[in-house]
Amino acid sequence: MEKIPVVQVHAPASTPGGRSANGKFHVRLTEGRFQNLRRLTTWPLIALFFGLVWVQVDGTPWLLFSFEQRRILLFGTALSWHDLPLLAGVMIAGACLLFFMAVAWGRVWCGFACPQSIWTWLFIRIEDLTEGRARQRAKHDRTGLSTALLLRRSAKHLLWALLALATAITFTGYFIPVREIMNSLLTLQMSPALWGWLLIMAGLTYANAGLVREKICLHACPYSRFQSVMFDADTRTVSYDTQRGEPRAHKRQQDGSVGDCVDCGVCVQVCPTGIDIRDGLQAACIDCGACIDACDTVMERLDRPRGLIRFASEHQLAKQPTRFMRPRLLGYGTAILLACGAVLYGFSATTELLVEIRRDRNALFIQLDEDTFCNTYRVKVESFREDSAPVKVSVRGNRDYILHGPDELNMAEHGSTWLPYRVCASGLDSPRSEISFQFESGSIRTEKASTFLAKPAKPS
């Protein structure tokens, strides 16, 4: 199948609007249906990101990836690290959904839900609030720094730093309880390692959303590199209708014909990656729809039909038959269903009782008398049940084994703690026997196999 070529074109420094003489461009904010749709998508995601980390149920975080406790608290369900493949399944399902959306509508994830894009728009909003609109910022770059501008830029960078620090604290709060982080921060008792981590995360956020911005989308994000492989001639992506727009107003033909594009450059001024969509599909385009809203506004003012720039496929622009469902879409849709089914099944069979057993390596066995031998073990039991029911411990084998150690564990006291146990037996006729530790907590039962060693029996 023929692939749509990806063209990498950068708008020239002479583009009118918010581009400075040094080539730096300032994004002009616009309004429209796609920008409203983007806000309806991004603001709930921002609220979830900053809000979920504070939600607790019975004093326990609702969502926490705890390295210290070696467990994942996921919306009221406790998972062990052995259940991490479930999260891998969720990521596989998400990747298939991303590919499905890419084949159907291009990089709409990048434009409407990607954290890099969301935080970039937040930083642009702060820049617009403190330093003025795009034309003003470009003018300030040309005229030089004044006292008033210095104060404005200082306020901008301060707000950027505060937002970056809040982002770093919130992100870290999904691995360390956020209340502990805030208490350590307010009492100045935070460990140097945590301080370093927060500063690194805040610095990366500040650089990515405030300074680097579009370069992340173009150079660091792998999706921009393989997007052309995902697209086909029926992929609806942000496109410029060349047949309708050309020739532009300043390129009037000899017969007087002219296209609808008046070459105002507004589509370039509002683009967060600084490209000219009229040059064709480009790797830097994130399909945010800003150029569509800007162009539609101009068309309405000129009393011309909207849609000069719109979500359209190559076949639609060429006025050829188009189809939505294709084999590739069906394949990704099937993969999504399979991955979701596997994840749902996995959540129904999660680990509720995790047991680890280690033999004492210093002494293979202890001989109490000529016929009685003992082995020493270390046992750790972790319960991932919602209740705190005690765990009963017993041992079984081909002989009568006696267990020395607590036969009932209170998870509130002994959870994640290695406990010493001794197992003894008499009348063994083999130097090596298989035994099984039995653990029972309510309706949950599990067992862990181990070995029992003894001195070889003397021949009769």
From TrEMBL:
The reply to whether 4Fe-4S figures as a keyword in the UniProt entry is yes
By its UniProt entry, which Pfam families does this protein fall under? Answer: Fer4_18, FixG_C
Transmembrane ranges? 43-64, 84-105, 158-176, 188-207, 329-348
Give all residue intervals belonging to the 4Fe-4S ferredoxin-type domain. 250-280
Tell me which InterPro entries the record gives.
Answer: 4Fe4S_Fe-S-bd, 4Fe4S_Fe_S_CS, Cyt_c_oxidase_cbb3_FixG, Electron_Trans/Redox, FixG_C
Q: Which UniProt keywords apply?
A: 4Fe-4S, Electron transport, Iron, Iron-sulfur, Membrane, Metal-binding, Transmembrane, Transmembrane helix, Transport
Task: Extract the signal peptide range.
Answer: none
**What PANTHER family does the entry give?**
FERREDOXIN-TYPE PROTEIN NAPH
Q: What is this protein called?
A: Cytochrome c oxidase accessory protein CcoG
Name the source organism. Marinobacterium weihaiense
- Species classification: Bacteria, Pseudomonadati, Pseudomonadota, Gammaproteobacteria, Oceanospirillales
Which gene is this protein's source?
ccoG
